[in-house]
């Protein structure tokens, strides 16, 4: 039988480490364990959404400030 237990999980905001201990036991009761470390990184830049294009306007026609948002692949 193969099983695992999560020893630690320090992932916060898409960055950190997970440590898992894997165990296998055969029919004779013999057991082997091994440890797996998963390092979680965030190397992808966030993306701005809704930034308006550059414009040239008269002094009395300055556009209002729009709502700009952002997305990120590691948002939790």
Write up what this structure looks like:
It is rod-shaped, with a radius of gyration of 25 Å. The protein has one domain (2-71). 0% of the residues lie in helices and 45% in strands. The protein has 76 residues and is an all-beta fold. The model has no long low-confidence stretch (mean pLDDT 95). A hairpin with a 5-residue loop joins strand 2 and strand 3. The strands form 2 sheets. Strands 1-2-3 form a 3-stranded antiparallel beta sheet, with no helix packed on it. Strands 4-5 form a two-stranded antiparallel sheet. The protein starts with a strand and ends in a 5-residue tail after the last strand. It has no helices and 5 strands. This is HYR domain-containing protein.
Summarize the structure.
With 76 residues, the chain is mostly beta strands. The protein has one domain.
Question: Main attributes?
Answer:
76 residues, mainly beta, three-stranded antiparallel beta sheet, two-stranded antiparallel ribbon, rod-shaped, HYR domain-containing protein
Secondary structure elements and their pairing?
Blueprint: E1 2-9, E2 16-25, E3 31-40, E4 47-49, E5 69-71
Antiparallel strand pairs: 1-2, 2-3, 4-5
**Helix-strand pattern:** EEEEE
Low-pLDDT segments:
none
> How many runs of DSSP E, i.e. beta strands?
5
SS class: mainly beta
Label the overall shape: rod-shaped
The number of domains: 1
User: How many helices does DSSP assign?
Assistant: 0
Mean pLDDT: 95
Which percent band covers the strand fraction?
35-45%
Output the strand order for the largest sheet: 1-2-3
Protein name: HYR domain-containing protein
